[in-house]
Amino acid sequence: MKDIHKLLQNNREWADRIEKEDPEFFHQLAKQQHPEYLWIGCSDSRVPANQIIGMAPGEVFVHRNVANVVVHTDLNCLSVIQYAVDQLKVKHILIVGHYGCGGVHATLHNTRVGLADNWLRHVGDVAQKHASIMDAIDDPELKHARLCELNVIEQVVNACRSTIVQDAWARGQKLMVHGWVYSLKDGRVREMGIDVGAPEDLQPAYERALAHVPRRGKRD
């Protein structure tokens, strides 16, 4: 209980500090949110969405799950996308993985972690789909990094193929879907070269992104 009380104390101190710095902050925050970004990222505690892109509370709508997976049977993720696109009218969906992802590591090494093994099967499917790329890499760290990147690229495709995004594009709503990977080592985001704003853009963007996945060495 001592740890919980510490969190509550931290909250009070944070709220008091923010109130002192900006007396209107919470008043404005309590109003209807109008974020332009939906962040779909990993649940990893080291990857805080707002801080990474320098956004304040209320500026980013966030969904997180193990290994930042977007699949058509996950009603939780799809509900978040639907609300963000249809109600909040976000302009950008950011699919953000991160190097050093534990879920990707478990998949890569066939490590059993429990119930999440079934969820991580989606990442395993990505590895199998791109076996020609993965099998050509000997260095374990680089292989891990490549799977993190390939996973993001495939999740962007899944998001773009969802009925929610397809319907938004069909009615002329401006909406871009982007693929990024964040590095824990330097705090910087790497673009995967897949940025999609219309159905006809998806396949060319996908092919370009795969063509630029490094077969050896690290991505700049």
Notes on the protein architecture:
Belongs to the beta-class carbonic anhydrase family. It is an enzyme of class 4 (lyase). This is Carbonic anhydrase. Its cofactor is Zn(2+). By secondary structure, the protein is an alpha/beta fold. The chain is 50% helix and 15% strand. Strand 1 (37-42), helix 3 (49-52) and strand 2 (60-65) form a beta-alpha-beta unit. Helix 5 (102-108) packs across helix 7 (121-129) and helix 9 packs antiparallel against helix 11 (199-211). 32% of the residues are buried. The mean pLDDT is 94.
Distance from N terminus to C terminus (CA atoms, Å) equals 45 Å
On the 0-100 scale, what is the average pLDDT? 94
Q: Proportion of β residues?
A: 15-25%
- How much helix, percentage-wise, in residues? 40-55%
Structural class by secondary-structure content: alpha/beta
The parts where pLDDT drops under 50 for at least 5 residues are none
Number of helices: 11
Question: What order do the SSEs take from the amino end to the carboxyl end, as H and E?
Answer: HHEHEHEHHHHHHEEH
What is the 3D shape?
Answer: globular
Q: Mind summarizing the main beta sheet?
A: 5 strands, mixed
Quaternary state reads single chain
**Estimated radius of gyration:** 19 Å
Cofactor: Zn(2+)
Keywords: Lyase, Metal-binding, Zinc
EC number: 4.2.1.1
InterPro entries: Carbonic_anhydrase, Carbonic_anhydrase_CS, Carbonic_anhydrase_sf
Topology (SSEs and partners):
Layout: H1 2-21, H2 25-29, E1 37-42, H3 49-52, E2 60-65, H4 75-87, E3 92-98, H5 102-108, H6 116-119, H7 121-129, H8 131-135, H9 140-161, H10 163-170, E4 176-182, E5 189-196, H11 199-211
Parallel strand pairs: 1-2, 1-3, 3-4
Antiparallel strand pairs: 4-5
Helix pairs in contact: 5-7, 9-11
